[in-house]
Each structure stands twice: as structure tokens, then as C-alpha cells.
Design brief:
Order of helices and strands: EHHEHEHHEH
Helix content: 40-55%
Number of domains: 1
Shape: globular
Radius of gyration: 16 Å
CATH superfamily: P-loop containing nucleotide triphosphate hydrolases
CATH class: Alpha Beta
Distance between the termini: 9 Å
Number of strands: 4
Length: about 160
């Protein structure tokens, strides 16, 4: 991996991603997504690789993370050029059946999201598709196998 790369690890609750749900619940999503975009742009501009774990269930949310949003005022220290190139961000879609992910949720202790809400996430989920830059990895395997699959995909890109 030569140039800085952002990995957007996405998926429904219980798919294996760390969550920022508690913060999202207390804030409006659009400004929060714009703030995450600003952090991604800043870190990539400084030459850092970034891994962001965020549900990003809708394409619009992923677009804001990648491109920012034109109708949200820029902060005073931001440049209008604060955009990520599409190839700089790879969406890693952790996918699995409702049954597999539901079972994983029921096994979790102390998670903020009740498993009953999983169906609502599946209902609004807009899986990535072309022309989005993404890979799809099944969660029906161990965490190390998931990580290995992601690293193999990165080697091929």
C-alpha cells in the first residue's frame, strides 16, 4: 500500500465492526458524517492510513464520508478541496445473513443496540454496488479469516 488509504468498515450491527452508534444517537447523522469526512481528509492529507468502522448503511451516508457535503458550511480552517478521491477509500462490506448476524448479536454482552432492532437495519441497508469502490466479505468465518480476506483484496488492488 503506497498512497494513504481509507478503509470504511461497514455493516449491520453485530457484523464485527466497532460502533459509533452511541454518538450517532445523540447527534444528527449528517453533521456527524461530515465531521468524520473532515477527519478522514485530514489524516489522508498527513499521509496516514485510516480504518473507520461505521454502519454507513445508506449510500448517501457513504457518499458524505467520501465526498463531504456541499450544502454543509466548511469550517474556517478547511479548504473547498477537502475531498477524498474515490480510489482512496475502499468500502469493506461485512455481510451475513439475518440469522448469522442475529445469533452474533444475541451472544454479545453489554452492547448498546438491542438485537430486536437488527431487522430495521436490514430493512434500510443499501449494500454497496458499482460504481462504489468496495469489497464484500462474509462474516461467516473467524475474525482472523475476515482480516486475511481483506488483506488479500488489498494486495490485488
Amino acid at each position: 500500500m503506497e498512497a494513504p488509504l481509507v478503509l470504511l468498515v461497514m455493516g449491520v450491527s453485530g457484523s464485527g465492526k466497532s460502533t459509533v452508534g452511541a454518538l450517532l444517537a445523540s447527534k444528527d447523522r449528517i453533521p456527524w458524517l461530515c465531521s468524520l469526512h473532515d477527519i478522514l481528509v485530514r489524516d489522508v492529507a498527513s499521509g496516514q492510513h485510516v480504518v473507520l468502522a461505521c454502519s454507513a448503511l445508506k449510500k448517501m451516508y457513504r457518499d458524505i464520508l467520501i465526498h463531504g457535503r456541499n450544502d454543509v458550511p466548511l469550517k474556517s480552517n478547511e479548504s473547498a478541496k477537502g475531498k477524498l478521491a474515490g480510489e482512496q477509500l475502499l468500502v469493506v462490506y461485512l455481510c451475513g445473513s439475518f440469522e448469522i448476524i442475529s445469533r452474533r448479536l444475541f451472544q454479545r454482552k453489554g452492547h448498546f443496540m438491542p438485537p430486536e432492532l437488527l431487522q430495521s437495519q436490514f430493512s434500510i441497508l443499501e449494500p454497496p454496488s458499482a460504481p462504489e469502490n468496495f469489497i464484500q466479505v462474509s462474516v461467516d468465518q473467524s475474525v482472523s479469516e475476515i482480516a486475511d480476506a481483506i488483506m488479500e483484496e488489498l494486495q490485488m488492488k
